[in-house]
Amino acid sequence: MRLQLISISLLLATAACGFGADVAAGKTAYDAACKKCHGADGTPNPAIVKMMKVEMKHLGAKDVQAKSDAVLKKETIEGIGKMKAMPAVEKDVANILAFVRTLKQ
Fold first, then answer.
1. pLDDT in the model for residue 20
2. Could you tell me the domains of the chain?
3. Is 53 exposed, middle or buried (0-12, 13-18, 19+ CB in 10 A)?
4. Percent of the chain scored above 70 by pLDDT?
């Protein structure tokens, strides 16, 4: 019985982390595709905010982190507001999301 509970806990932990998504690979992909606007630690780039005349939230903010992986994936790939679509990151999006989840404040 105890082994079953441990197995279920590990399965849920894996699911919560994006089915084995790789945080290190996510940071690499994030740095290449997202860092210019969202900053290395999820802090919006002030120059981009000013130039685009937008409000950007820290990626670790409570309301950003409360979004489901499905919503964040959609917003990342398709864009949201003035953020352009990023279809090139679709293959890396699970890893990127795993990295973004580490930015939780």
1. 79
2. 22-101 (1.10.760.10)
3. exposed
4. 82
